[in-house]
Write a structure and sequence with these properties.
0% of the residues lie in helices and 55% in strands. With 113 residues, the protein is an all-beta fold. Strands 2, 4, 5, 6, 9, 10 and 11 form a seven-stranded mixed beta sheet that branches. Strands 1-3-8-7 form a four-stranded antiparallel beta sheet, with no helix packed on it.
Length: 113
């Protein structure tokens, strides 16, 4: 049984930083990603990482966010710096791709201005 457990969300002032973690159990996936969904908006890709290190970022977070993974711990991270109020959303960890993969329960990130 695959489980994804996220942690690290919270309330932070604009310009601050947060680090999200997602521990995966039950299987190993080549592609891991972080998505987010703000109120009234569709879920969108924030960043993903494929295999050992190829990564992709949404244009809105490029240069501010960094995705990484610890294969030994089967954990993926999202380091978020220079946070903006528009980054406020529920952040979801995904394993295996958005169409047929698995999702975490989500963690709230709130950035105050």
């Amino acid at each position: 049984q695959v489980q994804l457990v996220e942690s690290g969300g919270g309330l932070v002032q604009a310009g601050g930083s947060l680090r999200l973690s997602c521990v995966v159990s039950g299987s190993i996936f080549s592609i891991m990603g972080w998505y987010r969904q703000a109120p009234g908006k569709q879920r969108e890709l924030v960043a993903n990482i494929i295999g050992g290190g190829n990564s992709n970022y949404a244009a809105s977070v490029k240069g501010r966010f960094t995705i990484s993974r610890d294969i030994a711990k089967n954990t993926v991270y999202l380091q978020m710096n220079s946070l903006k109020p528009e980054d406020t959303a529920v952040y979801y960890c995904n394993a295996g791709g958005p169409d047929f993969g698995y999702w975490g329960q989500g963690t709230q990130v709130t950035v105050s201005s």
